[in-house]
UniProtKB/TrEMBL annotation:
<protein>
    <recommendedName>
        <fullName>SMP-30/Gluconolactonase/LRE-like region domain-containing protein</fullName>
    </recommendedName>
</protein>
<dbReference type="InterPro" id="IPR011042">
    <property type="entry name" value="6-blade_b-propeller_TolB-like"/>
</dbReference>
<dbReference type="Pfam" id="PF08450">
    <property type="entry name" value="SGL"/>
</dbReference>
<dbReference type="GO" id="GO:0016787">
    <property type="term" value="F:hydrolase activity"/>
</dbReference>
<feature type="domain" description="SMP-30/Gluconolactonase/LRE-like region">
    <location>
        <begin position="108"/>
        <end position="261"/>
    </location>
</feature>
<keyword id="KW-0378">Hydrolase</keyword>
<dbReference type="InterPro" id="IPR051262">
    <property type="entry name" value="SMP-30/CGR1_Lactonase"/>
</dbReference>
<dbReference type="InterPro" id="IPR013658">
    <property type="entry name" value="SGL"/>
</dbReference>
Amino acid sequence: MELVASSAHRLKSPAFDPSGSLFCTCSTTGTLFAVNGASLEAFLETNGGPCGLAFDPTTGDAFLCDGEKQSVQKIDKDPNTGAPVVVDFIHQFEGRSLSGPQRLCFLPNGELLFTDGSALGEASPTHTGGSVYRTVQRRQQLLRLAGGLAGPSGVAVDAQTGFVYVTETPLNRVLRFVPRPEGHYVSSVWHSLQGSLGPVDVTVHPLTGDVYVAKYDVAEASPHGSVVVIGRNGEEKGVITVPTPHISGLAVSPSGEDLFIIVEVDDDSVVSKIYRFPL
């Protein structure tokens, strides 16, 4: 495992744009960073608390989950200056405000998918007000894919099968949604984990379909963190050991050659590190 970069920010949600460049967010300062070698360059100040980031694979447009503003946002261009600006994209469902969008990704058909629930530390197994939403009709409408969830956090899609994976942090499990005709999905508890505070993020290998699940924990329980590798059939294939249990984001490179892992050094510091693990 190789250390790529270190930053005095609470980094989250690594994401690749269509050109293969890596970006990440800081939910405390509201900054969107571009990872350039061993350095991080501030790309945009969102004036919010972005905790999720994804790029449209066809247009390159960037979308953010902002739990602080309770909305999904899009990065657009100022019509006068051409500078990047943040605009509100989705902030309610059926007339009600969103709870706190956490992570997002794109379905193979180009629709947007995102989790909406409480952040880590606020969610609990008995608080089942979380949801997963997806856009339809070229993102003009919003549908609830699932409701009644406890702290849904990470979300990822297997581009080959269309399977959707969602981490339900307080219940320490991963849900799977299998697409069926006419836009319907069949859901189930796909994998239950043991130990840790729960899984906080998930990503899928673009070629093999292997699922990588980040387990978050406290240092008093374990000095190391772990990313569980699970095959499409739900069977564990291995565990990647991480230097700290405070994992805050995962992303597989577009080529499938590397897994990028963001961790926070400890509970008290604001130092984050980005690691690269060859696959």
